[in-house]
Amino acid sequence: MNEFFRRTVTGAWIVIIILGGFWLHPLSFILVGLAVLAGSQYEYYMMIKSAGVRPQMVTGLAAGAAVFIFSTLAASGIMPMKFLLLTAPLIFIIMSAGLFRRDEKPFDSLAHTLLPLLYIVMPFSLFPFSAFGHTGLNTLLPHSIEAFSPGIVVGFFILLWTNDTGAYITGISFGRHLLMERISPKKSWDGFFGGLILTMAVAWLLSGWLGVVDRNGWIIISIIITVTGTLGDLIESMFKRTIGVKDTGTIMPGHGGFLDRFDSAIVSFPLVFLFIILFG
User: How many other CB atoms sit within 10 Å of the CB of residue 29?
Assistant: First the structure.
């Protein structure tokens, strides 16, 4: 019960700070997105360091921030979209920097420096593209940007965390049929379907308020979130089990770190955004 209470209190603060930040104003939307990206990327590097690999943390974090900032400038129309190609040389800069480091395993160092750019930075850098140029849910504070709506991200996280909550409560209450014991011994099919049913119900109730796509679209999105979010959680669990760590951080009591909390979003959001772009 103490663990459940701690998770609940921390979860409430996560919703207030993260969801509130995305919803409040375009500036807070960008700052929260950048913080989530940088926090997750930093924890990945620290996790890898605990396994004896020396990633290029400063270079990697700078590259991640640059990709997110350039994505924001391109999505907002401040910078032409073709200028996003300027981020491509960052890969070669990181690879070249490896020549001047005395690493016992330079290949491992480069691989784990570059992987977060694909695994973490690219998915979170879609956030600005989901907000600029869209209409729908308004920010809580007024702004002068003609077309900006946090509706896709706000709706996504509401459903994602609904699924997490439904799966957790159903899992600890009725979980008997393990989903993938080799990777995550606490996840069950019971929790998976409990989360799915609750997420579909919330999507049905909130679809008219969220907009962007119709009710059927949000129900499909809820299914995408449940399936891909579960996979994202299992992928991160696979990383942690390989390295031998329980959590990637301690900044969120009862939830671990940034990467523990947003592992589902990393895999799920690109597919949800793709669905909205294609069928929204």
Answer: 26
Strand, coil or helix: what is 187? strand
d(CA 191, CA 48): 30
Q: Where are the alpha helices (DSSP H) in 211-256?
A: 215-243
- 111-124 pLDDT, tens digit each: 999 999 999 999 99
**CB under 8 Å to 194, separation ≥6 — which residues?**
166, 167, 169, 170, 171, 174
Domain that holds residue 80: 2-279
Burial 30-39 (b: 16+ CB within 10 A, else e): bebbbebbbb
Instruction: Tell me the pTM.
Output: 0.90
| Spatial CA neighbour of 254 closest among 7, 8, 11, 40 | 7
Q: Are 60 and 117 in contact (CB under 8 A)?
A: yes
Whose CA is closest to 124, among 56, 32, 238, 44? 32
CB 140 within 8 A of CB 24: yes
Please provide residue 222's backbone torsions phi and psi, each rounded to the nearest 5 degrees. Answer: -60, -35
Alpha helix locations (H) across the chain?
2-14, 20-24, 26-49, 57-75, 89-97, 106-116, 122-124, 127-131, 151-174, 189-210, 215-243, 258-279
Question: Which neighbouring-strand residues pair with 180?
Answer: 184
The reported pLDDT for the residue numbered 55 is 92
Does residue 31 contact residue 25 with C-beta atoms inside 8 Å? no
Domains of the chain: total: 1
Euclidean distance between CA atoms 4 and 9, whole angstroms? 9
